[in-house]
């Protein structure tokens, strides 16, 4: 933190307080235009079943490039959340994701797609349920092939009301996932009350896992908890072969991370999927020769 001299004296400068700097105002103006004109792109990161190597789905991740370079989601998503742009942005990401998912399914790949929901989207029940229902009606994708990821902290922000919204979303047939699991403040008993089908263990527990017995224990425990509750367990942020092998051996249901693939533009996804599937078939054939 930097101490800043002002008329009222010295105070501590925190970046999160700095909401009206020229850069922020310019960002906000550009983001508003980008959302209005559908200039925010969506990238897709595959999720793979580590036991079989089969691709089971992909997460849709918003991407925004301005004239002077790309802006990270960690910067523009919170800005959108504070300025009412998150609802139209979410609708655009949902539409893009369902368009992509429908095209994969037409090409013979029965994948699911996951979209991130900001906690703000859960505070207005009719809004989010309508947005999701309308998006599903525009595309030839079954509701069961859509997963909505909500962070653990977002799920406990407004417990009673939030749970009602989750039940309404569930009634549409979509799947619900707890994102960044392990980083929030939720009690384990709260988790059992949520109508969710999936736990996504946060990537901070994967980093350097082979050298950190404590992280190994946390992942193993989170995974056992998820399975005991009948949930699908996904581990995100897997970057290396060693991490992949370690997590596969724990028995999780899906792995997402740079080791499998970085988030890909929609136009590259099918080509990646076909080459991954061919490589997997080739490696299975090779193993087959030994039997
Ligand atoms: P998230 O939902 O937890 O998404 C996973 C993040 O981890 C993504 O960052 C992804 O690119 C990154 N990642 C995936 N594999 C690896 C890996 O092996 N190593 C490392 N170091 N990182 C990996 P990204 O795309 O920068 O997004 C950051 C966050 O922004 C997301 O975290 C999500 O919370 C938010 N976000 C992105 N798109 C949207 C959106 O459309 N709507 C909302 N509400 N939030 C979004
Ligand atoms: Mg996510
Ligand atoms: Mg996450
Ligand atoms: Mg995150």
UniProtKB/TrEMBL annotation:
The EAL domain covers which part of the protein? 24-277
Q: Is the Signal keyword given for this protein?
A: no
- Tell me which UniProt keywords the record has, alphabetically: Membrane, Transmembrane, Transmembrane helix
* Protein name as it appears in the record: EAL domain-containing protein
| Species this chain originates from | Paractinoplanes pyxinae
Range within the parent protein: 535 to 825 of 825
